[in-house]
Design brief:
heterotrimer; A mainly alpha (318); B alpha/beta (340); C alpha/beta (345); A: 318 residues; B: 340 residues; alpha/beta; eight-stranded mixed sheet; four-stranded antiparallel sheet; 11 helices; globular
């Protein structure tokens, strides 16, 4: 007969064998663990990773200068003579005889810049607006709900303003250029972030743990900043990833319409796409490559955002 | 000649398969049978497999990632037999709602919020009985009246959110019994309701069984509910039946330490107030795999070495009282009590 | 003087309409004139069905909801009149345990941070070490070990989470803990563990509890005094044993008759008093006795016109019914003719 202690040890072992635990892991780390197993997340992360690498390394990867018209004598757009992909120039030449691949590589940085700044602008301003609104609604009593109502009507007005109109007006004020594009695209994102964060905060504000914090005697500022806000950030961060994708597409669209950077020496995917439309008949590849790059990059960010959303979804958690 | 039971569940098993992880054996060779006009209870705590059992019998488990074993022979209305676990989905859909029906725990989410109650009840009649239009509406009103919903003519036009919780559950029961099913499965039908409403619903269910001869499978965590309602009670733990008996026998002589522990955990309204509760220690997560021994061993005060020698066999102590324990709290006939 | 004294408490929630300019179009009388008191070191159990206002009353004790009228006195001081900062400080003396153990714990905080929060917001504990010692002490008092500190709420079982919730309340050494449905979300075997824990803590620390629950058996088991609520008002108050032995209010009777007992012998002999109809809306309560619309003992006189006061009928036994004595003496027969029909179709 084994001793009681040995029996208990054996039991503990058998119980533990059925468990799968990760002791002391927070919600975000759990989500990260889940994302690492998700093929969607891996694909998205790979695309985004390559994009970032290209954008950062730029000149180190580009085989030629993006502006030098080295092969200018081989291309005659008015006679419909173009050069497609070949061993020397992987993606062929553009209408001025510049290496298309090098231009794409260098252009990635501009695209990233526009995306990050625009999404960052939308996120910062939107989160501020939504955060104040949400905190006022949940903790500010009757006066707070008034503040919230006013701020939200303001956001609704912004939401009603078309991005394009906004961009054109800003361009009229600031002149054509990358800054205009970034501000216009960013401004369009503000109401999205504001509504999202406010909604999440109001939902979290009604949860029992907020009541528990109040019962504990925590001050309102602490409840808002330490409890409600961090628990509301999940959907907002997902939106930030998705916004990077839309910002890149929107920026390309505005550049395509001629509101982008007028400086031809700084290539940008949207401007390249816009320039290529004149030669769509003779050299469709000039439009196809930037368009593909925009689509794939946007898809990468979207995949990552969707995977993040799924991994944070409490319904999928055990 | 003894007729075969209405539903004979033999060694029902349900496992959830997971990618790159161990399968979860939710139900592990459970056997029981149901008969017309009788109420059988499945009792257990969260994770014991009681709800998965009901979903398996209704054919409502997802097709992917689930492995179902065993048989559930159901005597069909028109004669003949069918194994509910092996029927093709289309046949199962015909059976559901007509011969077998189910009542769920949450009446609000079981009803379609944008369709009036009357239409939802009439739909069942149209689907299985081909009754349409005014005739279906009249029958639906009759059904609502039958389950104790006052003013059924008006209620027919109301939406689920306009009804109270108790009325919603009645409406759900009306839908379930619309085609006079011979088997009704109720999964925690009163858990979301207040106790006075619970009393009304239990009365309604037992009345239906007595008058229509329906067989009722009652799934609940509440030993108080089964004590007054069920003819036969099965206690489940970690996917297996640990004890089963006629209700008076079960409560008079709880033989498995888990059953005894559950009874010791419930404050009784009729007991002296200072009578202490004697809860089972630990949680249901402290179970071990049945293949390693008795799943209840880690929480059991009577646990001994031989409890870890694989799953303990089901034993009998007369009059259909079955239990799965090597060191029961009540002695099996012909055995000495282990006074501990 | 009792530790907690509630006097004529009213909590009404305005029903508001309108977008920018809010108007009040009505009010929900969640708690409508309740008086009760809880002595130090004892347990007062409040039982009632959903919508009776018991949860709101519990929250009003901590002033987590605005009090419309009446007083909530803690050690003689009226909380309803306290300025915000003093009110916040007073929260140290009354704590709360919630129904949903997972929902009431911030998912982003680990156990250590959850338990430290109360000490931090009240500036308690001389230094980090002292605070940590207090946290570990509270954790051990509820049967968990210090190894739980770095773990997050979702890693625990329901019963363990509820223990963490209780430890969070204990850290502040309160005099009173309001327990709102402390066990109803738990498995049966775990319920008993938590109830035993609450009793043990009361013995060791002299805590007072206000236990709010829908389960009469649970409430009676833990409470010295039981109050029964119906539609915003207290209809009966009695010592735990007295209430079961001799329920005086018709609502209490029907409640007791509906509580299932895990004993077939008792169940077979049971005569249920089934109530008619549904709970009226607390936004539009019936005049007179709130219960008269469903009462099987309803009389022509008084019931529909005069709201009965909670009055003492025996030592420690109060009831709010005009005809309690005559019902108890069997002079009035219940009207059972209108029980829900079960005739065949």
């Amino acid at each position: 007969m084994t001793s009681r202690a040995e029996r208990i040890d054996r039991l503990a072992e058998l119980v533990a064998a059925r468990r799968e635990d990760g002791a002391g892991r927070g919600v975000w780390r759990e989500a990260f663990t889940r994302m690492r197993r998700d093929p969607m997340a891996i694909t998205g992360a790979a695309v985004v990773g390559v994009f970032l690498l290209v954008a950062v390394l730029g000149e180190l990867i580009a085989p030629y200068s993006p502006t030098a018209q080295t092969w200018g004598t081989e291309v005659f757009p008015n006679r419909n003579v173009f050069v497609g992909p070949r061993a020397e120039n992987w993606l062929g030449l553009d209408n001025l005889g510049r290496d298309q691949f090098s231009r794409m590589v260098i252009g990635a940085r501009q695209t990233l810049l526009v995306g990050v700044v625009a999404a960052g602008l939308g996120f910062t301003a939107g989160a501020l607006l939504g955060g104040v609104s949400g905190a006022a609604h949940t903790l500010g009593g009757r006066a707070g709900r008034r503040i919230d109502t006013v701020l939200m009507r303001l956001t609704d007005m912004m939401l009603a303003l078309p991005t394009l109109l906004l961009a054109v007006s800003i361009a009229a004020l600031l002149g054509q250029g990358l800054t205009t594009v970034m501000i216009a695209v960013g401004a369009a994102q503000i109401p999205i972030f504001a509504r999202l964060l406010r909604g999440a905060m109001i939902a979290q504000g009604g949860r029992d743990y907020v009541l528990a914090a109040r019962a504990l005697g925590a001050r309102r500022r602490r409840i808002a900043l330490a409890h409600i806000l961090p628990n509301s950030m999940g959907p907002v961060l997902v939106q930030l990833t998705l916004s990077l994708a839309t910002a890149i597409i929107d920026a390309a669209a505005l550049s395509y319409l001629g509101l982008g950077n007028p400086d031809p020496s700084v290539p940008e995917w949207g401007t390249m796409l816009a320039d290529a439309q004149r030669f769509l008949g003779g050299a469709p590849q000039l439009a196809v490559f930037p368009a593909l790059a925009i689509i794939v990059t946007a898809l990468g960010f979207t995949l990552m955002g969707e995977a993040m959303r799924e991994s944070l979804d409490p319904r999928l958690r055990k | 000649m003894t007729r075969s039971p209405l539903l004979d569940v033999d060694e029902l098993s349900v496992a959830f398969t997971r990618r790159r992880r161990r399968d979860v054996q939710a139900v592990d060779r459970i056997s029981f049978s149901l008969d017309e006009g009788r109420i059988t209870g499945l009792v257990g705590e969260s994770g014991c497999g009681k709800s998965v059992t009901s979903l398996a019998l209704m054919g409502l488990l997802p097709a992917r990632g689930v492995r179902v074993g065993g048989t559930a022979r159901f005597r069909l209305g028109g004669g003949g037999e069918a194994d509910l676990l092996a029927l093709p989905p289309a046949r199962m859909r015909d059976l559901r709602g007509s011969e077998i029906a189910m009542v769920f725990q949450d009446p609000l989410s079981s009803l379609n919020p944008v369709v009036p109650i009357g239409r939802q009840v009439a739909e069942v009649l149209t689907r299985h009985r081909g009754v349409k239009g005014a005739a279906a509406r009249d029958q639906a009103a009759e059904l609502l009246d039958r389950v104790g919903i006052p003013d059924p003519g008006r209620r027919l036009r109301e939406y689920p959110h306009e009804l109270s919780g108790g009325m919603r559950q009645r409406a759900l029961i009306a839908m379930a019994v619309a085609c006079r099913p011979r088997l009704l499965i109720a999964d925690e039908p009163t858990t979301a309701l207040d106790v006075t409403i619970q009393a009304q619903i239990l009365e309604l269910l037992s009345g239906l069984v007595a008058e229509e001869g329906t067989a009722l499978l009652m799934i609940t965590h509440d030993l108080g509910v089964v004590a007054g309602l069920c003819d036969e009670i099965n206690v489940l733990y970690s996917g297996r039946t640990v004890e089963g008996a006629e209700r008076h026998e079960l409560f008079a002589a709880p033989t498995h330490p888990y059953t005894a522990g559950l009874l010791g955990s419930i404050p009784r309204l009729d007991a002296p107030r200072d009578e202490p509760l004697t809860p089972v220690r630990g949680t249901v997560d402290d179970a071990i795999a049945w293949d390693d021994g008795c799943a209840f061993a880690p929480r059991c005060d009577r646990f001994a070495d031989d409890c870890l020698g694989g799953p303990p066999p089901m034993r009998e102590r007369g009059a259909g009282h079955r239990f799965r324990c090597l060191h029961p709290t009540e002695p099996a006939p012909g055995e000495e009590s282990e006074g501990r | 003087m009792s530790l907690l004294e509630i006097e004529d408490l009213e909590v009404h929630f305005p029903i508001r309409r309108g977008v920018l300019l809010e108007r009040t179009v009505g009010r929900v009388r969640a708690v409508d004139g309740v008086s009760l008191s809880v002595a130090a070191g004892t347990t007062y159990g409040l039982v009632g069905e959903s919508g009776c206002g018991k949860t709101t009353l519990g929250r009003a004790v901590l002033r987590l909801v605005d009090v419309t009228a009446g007083q909530v006195r803690l050690g003689g001081v009226d909380l309803a009149g306290l300025p915000a900062e003093e009110l916040r400080r007073s929260r140290r003396r009354v704590q709360m345990v919630f129904q949903d153990p997972l929902g009431s714990l911030d998912p982003r905080q680990n156990v250590e941070s959850l338990l430290l929060e109360g000490l931090e917001v009240h500036g308690l504990g001389a230094d980090r070490a002292a605070r940590r010692a207090a946290v570990v002490d509270a954790l051990e008092a509820v049967g968990l070990s210090a190894s739980a500190l770095p773990r997050y709420p979702h890693e625990f079982s329901g019963g363990q989470r509820q223990r963490i919730g209780i430890a969070r309340a204990l850290v502040l050494s309160p005099e009173l803990i309001v327990c709102d449905e402390p066990v109803s979300a738990l498995d049966v075997s775990i319920q008993a563990q938590v109830l035993n824990l609450l009793e043990e803590l009361q013995r060791e620390r002299g805590l007072a509890y206000l236990v709010i629950a829908h389960d009469l058996a649970v409430v009676r088991h833990v409470s010295d005094t039981v109050g029964v609520m119906y539609l915003g008002g207290l209809v009966e108050e009695a010592p735990g044993d007295g209430l079961y032995a001799e329920p005086l209010h018709p609502y209490t009777r029907s409640l007791i008759s509906a509580v299932p007992v895990p004993d077939p012998a008792v169940e077979d002999g049971r005569r249920r008093i089934l109530l008619q109809g549904d709970l009226p809306s607390p936004a539009d309560p019936p005049p007179g006795c709130r219960f008269h619309t469903r009462c099987p003992w309803r009389q022509e006189e008084l019931c529909a016109t005069v709201r009965p006061e909670l009055r003492q009928v025996a030592e420690g036994h109060k009831v709010a019914c005009h005809h309690a004595e005559r019902i108890a003496a069997g002079e009035i027969a219940p009207d059972t003719a209108e029980r829900p029909r079960r005739a065949g179709p």
